[in-house]
Specification:
Helix content: over 70%
Distance between the termini: 29 Å
CATH architecture: Up-down Bundle
Oligomer: single chain
Radius of gyration: 19 Å
Number of strands: 0
Strand content: under 5%
Shape: elongated
Largest sheet: none
CATH superfamily: DksA, coiled-coil domain
CATH class: Mainly Alpha
Bound molecules: zinc ion
Length: about 120
């Protein structure tokens, strides 16, 4: 597997920054949505169970986004340290094709697979 060229690195880090902005915006709008729900619910009109379920879903979605944001920040930090594109576990090259699909990948394919087996 070839090392990333400076052009590929630039492209991937731009991609990461773009995703970072998108996710920050999504988290922002989730937060705002929350406030509107709480402030504008006409009493007795909305089933409190439904409102609560919706709120829990929003919280879960927000947590997923925050986790993803943390991953992206970690990848960007690695890019600043010139460690981006290498597996944090074994130090192998992750590979451009894989990073193109998921630029915040921190593991190579084999370490990722090993991890997933451990979870199961
Ligand atoms: Zn690895």
């Amino acid at each position: 597997m070839d090392e990333l060229t400076p052009v590929q690195l630039q492209e991937l880090s731009d991609n990461l920054k773009q995703q970072q902005r998108d996710i920050e915006r999504q988290i922002d709008s989730l937060g705002k949505g929350d406030e509107t729900v709480e402030g504008a619910v006409p009493s007795g009109k909305i089933d409190p169970t439904t409102a609560m379920q919706e709120k829990q879903m929003t919280i879960a979605q927000k947590q997923r986004l925050e986790l993803r944001l943390a991953n992206i920040s970690a990848a960007l930090a690695r890019s600043d340290a010139n460690e981006y594109g290498f597996c944090v576990e074994c130090g192998d090259l992750i590979g451009y094709e894989r990073l193109k699909i998921k630029p915040d990948s921190l593991f190579c394919v084999s370490c990722r697979e090993k991890q997933e087996k451990d979870i199961q």
